[in-house]
Amino acid sequence: MEFGVSTFVTDDGIAPAALGRALEERGFGSLFLAEHTHIPVKRESPWPGGGELPRPYYRTLDPFVALTAAATVTERLRVGTGIALVVQRDPILLAKEVASLDLVSGGRAVLGVGAGWNREEMRNHGTDPRTRMRLLRERVLAVKELWTKDEAEFHGEFVDFDPVYLYPKPVQDPHPPVMIGGAGPTTFDRVVEYGDGWMPIYGRGTDELAGQIAELRERAGRRVRVTMFSVPAKAEVVSELEAAGVDEVLFGLKTVPEDETHRILDRFAGLLPGA
């Protein structure tokens, strides 16, 4: 099993380069960053975590800028989004951003994707929440075309462009892995059709995890990679996830200043193999 962290990088927590160095020094394999472009002042969409929306949601750095900062000071750390809100991003720009990150990092980029929950945020980007899943599908498929074709084109309901050149191409062959977030009734449909792995949040729709993973891999006809994020740093939880067939655990890291982050990571590192 592999280990990393999932977190929000903000303007009042540890800086992304310092976080990347701290993770690699302690033997972690990956860093996944959340995304919110903004939070509307008037919001009716409930936070899936329950209660008040935590402060880091309001203050996230752009994930690709932050991940690039982390990538340039590390050599092995995989850098990914957990998750990128693809329904709020232009697919041509997204393809270029991820390919550029993959190039800068030497082939360490991972694109975790989802449609999000904040309907007001989506609407500010011109996205109709009612069609966001269809939009997500087309944008991911379009990004893959842009990554893998010299003259890429796409003609869909929401995404439509004639042949274009887009460079750089990703370092990874055929492209950076696309991890599908969520655990809803149609999530596995998305993983099977256009995902390279599944990345649910611990405790949200994952109560029957071993059976869910077995079902997904049977449906896909392949060993789909499973990365679990926002995982509590407890030995019994790690053992439970390993037994269920999870490939990678991302410990949920609080957004706090550098000194406190180091103390938390030291505690997390005690759960790594060989610690």
Automatic annotation (TrEMBL):
GO molecular function: alkanesulfonate monooxygenase activity
Cited InterPro entries: Lucif-like_OxRdtase_Rv2161c, Luciferase-like_dom, Luciferase-like_sf, SsuD_RutA_monooxygenase
Pfam families associated with the record: Bac_luciferase (PF00296)
Chain ranges of the Luciferase-like domain: 18-235
A biological-process GO annotation: alkanesulfonate catabolic process
Signal sequence extent: none
UniProt KW keywords: Flavoprotein, FMN, Monooxygenase, Oxidoreductase
Superkingdom classification of source: Bacteria
PANTHER family listed in its UniProt record: ALKANESULFONATE MONOOXYGENASE, ALKANESULFONATE MONOOXYGENASE-RELATED
Name of the protein: Putative F420-dependent oxidoreductase
Lineage of the organism: Bacteria, Bacillati, Actinomycetota, Actinomycetes, Streptosporangiales
